[in-house]
Design goal:
The chain has 229 residues and is α/β, with parallel strands linked by helices. It has a single domain, classed as Rossmann fold, CATH 3.40.50.150. Helices cover 31% and strands 22% of the residues. An eight-stranded mixed beta sheet has the order 1-4-3-2-5-6-8-7. β5, α4 and β6 form a beta-alpha-beta unit. α5 runs antiparallel to α6. The protein is globular and about 45 Å long. The chain starts with a strand and ends with a strand. Bound molecules: S-adenosylmethionine. S-adenosylmethionine binds next to loops. The site of S-adenosylmethionine has 23 residues, from loops.
């Protein structure tokens, strides 16, 4: 497998600052080996179908998997040439993509127009700056290229959101404790309330919105596809 590339622009901080420091990927350092299995259990086996629905709307060619982690999406990228980017070398170390780059979405170490598509699954609520990342994605996409995002949020309906908030505040710490990573899963629960709903977050971006939809139980998962004009 190709070696990890650490571009000069990516400055990593200590992995020991894990609960506060998310954008260097350190929250995911300790759970890297268990991440895929836990994700599959928590999504009741649907996580790949949610990725696939977005990937089906992306062009062929060169694709950047932003926050690609362990490479869970690799089996559904088809014949695309994949570059996986993630700040966590531990997550990337498990990724089978041909090219793996240790960096963050807010500072992409690539030239303009270098990708036909950018994909990002379950990453946006971990970003330090959604705005900065979208600007970077717009820069590296070619005109007509697309960004596809799968993310987790709260359900739109207030009652459903309250039920979901209560449920996740009980289930995620329990799963985290069983997995030996309680702090990480408490963080993951809190991060669900960090961002505005996707309908608001993707209303005005440097990219044109093609489609946005809700999926999963109570609609707590969203998919969005944006295009560079
Ligand atoms: C929940 S995992 C998702 C991994 C993978 N995309 C998937 O579908 O399974 C979130 C990933 O986002 C990465 N991440 C955290 N902050 C990031 C940032 N600022 N830029 C890019 N990736 C980031 C983490 O290291 C982690 O691998």
């Amino acid at each position: 497998m190709a070696r990890l590339w650490f571009p000069r622009r990516c400055v990593r901080t200590s992995a020991s600052t894990r609960s506060a420091d998310v954008s260097n990927g350190s929250v995911f350092t300790d759970i890297a080996a268990k991440y895929d299995r836990i994700n599959r259990i928590l999504s009741l086996g649907r996580d790949q179908a949610w990725r696939q629905r977005v990937i089906d709307m992306l062009p062929e060619g060169r694709l950047l998997d932003l926050g690609g982690g362990t490479g869970a999406a690799n089996p559904v990228f088809g014949g695309r040439s994949v570059v996986a980017l993630d700040p966590s070398p531990e997550m990337l170390g498990l990724n089978s993509a041909g090219r793996r780059v240790v960096a963050i979405g807010e500072g992409l170490p690539f030239t303009e127009h270098s990708f036909d598509a950018v994909f990002s699954a379950y990453v946006f609520r971990n970003l330090d700056s959604v705005e900065g990342t979208l600007e970077e994605v717009a820069r590296v996409l070619r005109p007509g290229g697309r960004l596809g995002v799968v993310g987790l949020s709260r359900p739109r309906n207030r009652v459903a959101a309250a039920i979901h908030r209560t449920g996740s505040s009980i289930v995620l710490p329990v799963v985290g404790t069983l997995a030996g990573a309680r702090d990480e899963y408490v963080y993951l629960n809190r991060s669900l309330d960090k961002l505005p709903p996707p309908e608001q977050m993707f209303a005005a971006t440097p990219l044109r919105r093609v489609s946005l939809w809700r999926m999963g139980p109570l609609g707590f998962v969203y998919g969005v596809v944006l295009e560079k004009v």
